[in-house]
Structure formats: C-alpha cells, structure tokens
C-alpha cells in the first residue's frame, strides 16, 4: 500500500507526559489535557504503551485517552507486550490499532523487534485474538527486508518499523545505508501485503526525508522527541511542526545543545 501523496498519519505517544506526572504524584501534567491539545493542533491519533510496571501510562490513562479519541473520531493505538490483560483491554475498549511490541527485562525503551519466524507462534496467537475482535493489528519489527514475509505469515495487518538505526545515523556516513535499509524494508512489507508504520527517535530533523523517501509509510508514532521539543516550542506548536514534517516539509527545529 502506498500513500498516493497524502500525509503520513501522526500518532502522538503520550507516555512521557504520564512519566512526568508519576515522578511527582498527583495529576499534573495530565495526559488527557495533552491529548486534547495534540488532537486540536494536527495529530491524527494518540498512542499509549502500557507497561506491566506502570512506570508511565496506567490503565486509567488508556481508558481516558481511548474515550477522548472516540469522542473526536481520532485513532487510538495501544502498544504493549504479551500480557493477556493488555490484549483483553484492547478488545474491551475496541482500540483502533493494537501494536504488539516485544519487551525484555530492564529495558529503558523498546529497542528491538520480534524475531521471526522463531517467535511466530507467540505473535500469531495474539494477532489472531485481537484481530478477530475487529481491531487492526501491527507488530514491531527491525528494519530487515528479508523478515517481512515471515511477518506477513503471522496474519498481522501492519508492521511498525523500528527507526532508531536510521535516526542514530543522522549526520553520519551511515545515513545512506540506514535509509536504504528502511526503504527496502517498507517495500518488502508492502509487497507482502502489509501496511507500514514506523517509530522510534523520529524528529523534526530526520522525519522530512523519511516522508519523502518512503512512500509506503502510512503512520508514525512519535513521543519522546515531540515532547522534548514541546519544552522549547510549546506542545501545540510542536504538534503543528510534526504534522508538517509528516508531509515532507522542512521546518525549524529547536536548538537543544
């Protein structure tokens, strides 16, 4: 599937808002208020990754943000691992999309995709459960073109390509190779009948090139970089700029160092 010129859908991940709230206790900052601001200023949808340790997003956040997206007619993407209670929540709330992400003990953030076909049975079982409830499914994958046939064999609707290798190569001689690998993975995924999402360390500097060079890309989930930029630009202005880079436009990025 190719976008045919339409902008990439921007889904804002609000985990870091919840993390800041939890660091002090209380209710400020509010993921719900932040979610409203994002939808008011150009976000297509919202993303939450509910982890077992509740270190940022909590179950009440998932319920509140899902209700907000339903009210606004926006997409809601719930991310998470193999926990049955997570899949049950996705089904109960009829989320727009459930993205299955592997988690390893002690990780700070997601840093790898599913190992396919070795983990096929685990992935396919969960995909079937969630997909049978009418929910669009996605799985987090490394930028490995040769793995896309195995991803499609799980029955999933989309893949979310892990873009940290591309982002880490920004400004270095490796950039061309990493961009080529990202493009080849997206092409292979589309050829296998999969929709293509992407996420991890995409920002105002590196996103326009992706938007212009990867026509298969349907959706990006961006959280950390957008919310860091919001410290300098304000949340509303940050969302507006990220919506523009999802159209391939170049925008000014804040000086952060």
Keywords:
257 residues; alpha/beta; TIM Barrel; 8-stranded parallel β-barrel; 11 helices; 43% helix
Overall description:
With 257 residues, the protein is an alpha/beta fold. The chain has one domain (9-245): Aldolase class I (TIM Barrel). The protein is built from 11 helices and 8 strands. It has helices at residues 15-24, 31-40, 59-72, 84-93, 120-131, 148-152, 164-168, 175-191, 207-213, 224-233, 235-245, and strands at 9-13, 45-49, 75-80, 97-100, 136-141, 158-162, 195-199, 217-222. The chain has an 8-stranded parallel barrel with strand order 1-2-3-4-5-6-7-8, surrounded by 7 helices. Helix 10 (224-233) packs across helix 11 (235-245). The longest helix is centred in the last third of the chain and has 17 residues, at 175-191. The chain is globular.
